[in-house]
Amino acid sequence: MIIPSVATLLYLEMPAWKHSLQSISKPHLFWFSCFHNMALSVFSGYVFYRTTEIIFFQDGFEFSHRFFFQRPEIKTLMWWVYMSKYYEFIDTALLYASGKTPIFLQKFHHVGAVIVWHLANIHECDFIFFVSWLNCGVHTIMYAYYLCSLFTRRIPRYIKQTITTMQICQLSAGPLILPAGYYYTETRENYKILMVFTAYVMYLLYLFGEFMLNTYFRPMCLS
Fold it and tell me: What residues does each domain of the chain span?
């Protein structure tokens, strides 16, 4: 846990760098933001394509201990997804550079993702394969939306709301399906990691639900 712990401490220290981040010129910030969002959308799209191919055309929804992690190509793919969770810290840096303050939901999401993906990869927990499949599917669309929003402000509001709904749906799938699927097949140690993931996602669902309510529904009631 040394690497995710150090990364988390550095991430939480990011507010101390905001003045340096805000000194980045607007053209440089714009073009780096374009590259960042395009890179994450393309990467997520590739992972979603490969995992979809494996699930629907090769192995199916197999729930057993190290069924996927015993294959080097899948193990490597999951390692890259884990590494991408560190790179996603840049989402927060870009907000500070733009003069904005990230909400607690984003900070908790990023820190928790690094910890969960670290534990799952170190202990080779197959549940992270399915989590990565759903997560990358949503991220493909989400980062493409962020990229488009850099070029125009005329994107309909319902698209952002739809993406938030997709995030809530993919988060809900994990706690509903994975604990039951791995209850009789996973080792006790790995099942404990699955429970840590479940607790993390349940709190995320609460935060996303609160965000959805405050952003999309309460303003409608007050208007």
Answer: 2-222
